[in-house]
Design brief:
The structure is a single chain. By secondary structure, this protein is an alpha/beta fold. The protein is about 45% helix and about 15% strand. The chain is built from eleven helices and nine strands. The chain has a seven-stranded parallel beta sheet with strand order 3-2-1-4-5-6-8, with helices on both faces. The chain has a two-stranded parallel ribbon with strand order 7-9. Helix 3 links the parallel strand 4 and strand 5. The model has no long low-confidence stretch (mean pLDDT about 95).
Length: about 280
């Protein structure tokens, strides 16, 4: 049986579907009072909390493999250590952890550095593992960019000229499913990207074609982004972490790590990675 931690996330929910399609038995970790997962009647739910290692050990009873993903949080490193320790103490055979592209090295942005520290802890734990490192999600364009296009056709991001090989979360889930279900992946680290590196100016051009109206990208200062994020209800920590990530993308520029395109999706799943055009066609439909 496979335990999915983070099943409410876009990757986690797509992973559950992948695992069920493969005939796997799935258990999903949920917080007390959370009934997420009822969409999948064959998925068993277990109550637990990443902040409580004891609850994680109970959730892992009888579990062979674990998928580990959490939302960004100031305590994320401690949470992941709890899950890794619980997996080690319950003799889990394999833990697949969702990290982030760029986490192989120490980094200033808190999002990336937290993953770097957690990945290192997992590698040093002695637990059989796979680390999946996806780039920025294509779904952010659908969920965060399109809704913010104003009456003049502008959207605002502090990305400079950076090119980013954004990836569809369903492709990340497909890679994770392969790592969990197929043999001989223990010890692997998979960088997962989309099929092309796009600047936000490129994104604007694709949106223009897909939406049938002129859309333009406006590069804005970090201070303006912080003000908008705080006004939208994000915490000061989360706003700062997001800004730090986009600062790193700007440092990556047009040819840096964030622009790197890998063949991981095709190589592991046998399917081509979904593109922004593919996603926008679904949105239009």
């Amino acid at each position: 049986m496979i335990l999915v931690i983070g099943g409410r996330s876009k990757i986690g929910s797509a992973l559950i579907e992948e695992l069920l399609s493969r005939g796997e038995q799935v258990r999903a970790l949920v917080r007390a009072g959370d009934h997420a997962g009822s969409t999948y009647p064959t998925v068993s739910l277990v109550t637990g909390d990443l902040a409580d290692e004891g609850s994680l050990m109970a959730a892992m009873d009888g579990i062979e493999k674990v998928f580990l993903l959490s939302s960004p949080h100031p305590d994320a490193v401690a949470w992941h250590r709890n899950a890794i320790d619980a997996a080690r103490r319950t003799d889990v055979q394999l833990l697949v952890r969702s990290s982030i592209l760029g986490a192989e090295a120490e980094s200033a942005p808190e999002f990336i550095d937290a993953h770097h520290v957690s990945d290192r802890y997992l590698r040093e734990s002695g637990l059989p593992h796979v680390i999946v490192r996806p780039n920025l999600f294509l779904q952010n364009i659908q969920e965060s960019t399109i809704p913010t296009i104003d009456a003049s056709g502008n959207f605002y991001v502090d990305a400079g000229q950076a090119r980013i090989s954004m990836v569809d979360t369903r492709d990340v889930a497909a890679v994770a499913a392969v790592a969990l279900c197929d043999q001989d992946h223990a010890g692997a680290q998979y960088d997962v990207t989309g099929p092309e590196a796009l600047s936000y100016a490129d994104v604007a051009a694709r949106l223009t074609g897909a939406l049938g109206r002129e859309v333009s990208y406006v590069d804005v200062p970090d201070a303006a982004v912080r003000e908008a994020l705080l006004a939208a209800g994000l915490s000061d920590w989360f706003a700062g972490a997001l800004i730090g990530l986009y600062q790193d993308y700007r440092r990556s520029g047009t040819e840096g790590y964030a622009a790197r395109v890998t063949d991981t999706v095709t190589r592991l799943t046998g399917r081509r990675a979904r593109s922004l055009d593919d996603l926008l066609a679904e949105v239009a439909a």
